[in-house]
Amino acid sequence: MVSLSISTLSALVLALVVKDTAAHIVLWHDAMFGWDQYNINQNDAVTPLADMTFDEWWFHGYKDKKPAEGKFIELPVGGVFKGEVACNKAQTTWNPEITDESQLDEFACHDVGPMHTTDAKGSENPTNVKGCGLAIAYTSDENTVKPSDFTVFSVDHACPWKRRVDFPVPADLPACPEGGCLCSWGWVHSPESGSEQMYHTVYRCKVTGATETRALPAPLTANKCDYPSDTANCTVGGKQPHYWLQKEGNNNFQDYYDPPYYNEKYGFMQGAQTDLFAGIAPSRPTVVAESSVVPTSTVATVVSSSEVPSAQPTLVVESSTTDVASSASTSASVVLSTSSTSSSSIANSSSGAAPTSVVSSSSSAQASTSASSSSAPATTTKSTGKTCKRTLHNNVVRQARRHTRAARVAATVESVRQRDVLLDRQRLLAEGLAIMARSKLV
């Protein structure tokens, strides 16, 4: 009678189990939707997905088969999530009968067939393996989450190959909401190695050690390109997983022999995806609220910036104690200055005080014209002059307010050239208003 030790018997049983159940591949974890805690030999989750309705392939059909309470994949920011991909749960450390990892195969499966590659088993540099990826959605509600909510955050170009696979986690991945996040694992294999399909499984997960407070921008479909040698067609920023070859719910519509991959051919860099926020435009200067100043004079003075690109140009109607006739008889001045040279003027503007004008009419000219205007005797002339003053005053005020707003909006424009063009137009407008004042009131 032949006697076998318990360890030898266990190894033989495991070999038989794996041989009988080897199929395809999945990332095994007890936070998986569809996890069967009572079935050591579970292999239904490895079933490939092709030509299915949305409800059939979404969550691999396990949306209502939730993981046990409190089960999560933990994702340490700046660290690594160490996962296991295999043809069968029994081939992983999730098998409670495994006491030493040396009992397990180094590779995802005993044979290369289920790994869908032409590479020879044992190769340290497989070339026909096309990569797999982990994605995250910032919700814990499996009933409302959508395929477009998932952002791929980590990729391994040599997956599935070895059973152990590392997924580096970006350092700027934000924390999950209360209740955690949902994560998905995806894989699409080479067309040279069996019938085409995709793999998609969902898990509960949570981010640990997060310091980033910005929410991830909405991910886009990953375009076919050639990162990093030719990125012209690459998707900028966060990218969705590949949903392909199904009856409905696809985001990629390439044909049967042109499958999408989780590698550089679709803009996915090896490891942590550090471009998740790359699609966000840089912050722009704050637009300062318009002052409530009511100008009392008819001479328009342009105060703008020609030295500091970020300065706020402001159009100010200069206050004066002289009357309109005396002001109109002097030359109107257009002055270029920097509004940021005096922080007090900005403070005064925001508090409602009148901004200080940079240029005023010369004292001698004011005195001379004031004397001449005081000798005008006719009542009719005075009445007409008042009407003209009031009309011109209203016109200038409207123009001043309109161009003050335009100047402030222009300050937010990143192009210095566009701002300079606007300032030139303001200068010409001011000169035109001054000429109009002289022609009507002299």
Automatic annotation (TrEMBL):
Main localization (coarse): secreted
UniProt key word Electron transport: no
Biased segments, Low complexity type: 367-386
Annotated region (Disordered), positions in chain: 367-394
GO terms of molecular function: metal ion binding; monooxygenase activity
Signal peptide: 1-23
Pfam family, one: LPMO_AA14
GO cellular component: extracellular region
Coiled coil: none
InterPro entries named in the record: LPMO_AA14
Cofactor(s) the record lists: Cu(2+)
UniProt KW keywords: Copper, Disulfide bond, Glycoprotein, Metal-binding, Monooxygenase, Oxidoreductase, Secreted, Signal
Location in or out of the cell: Secreted
Entry's family note: Belongs to the polysaccharide monooxygenase AA14 family.
Stated name of the protein: Uncharacterized protein
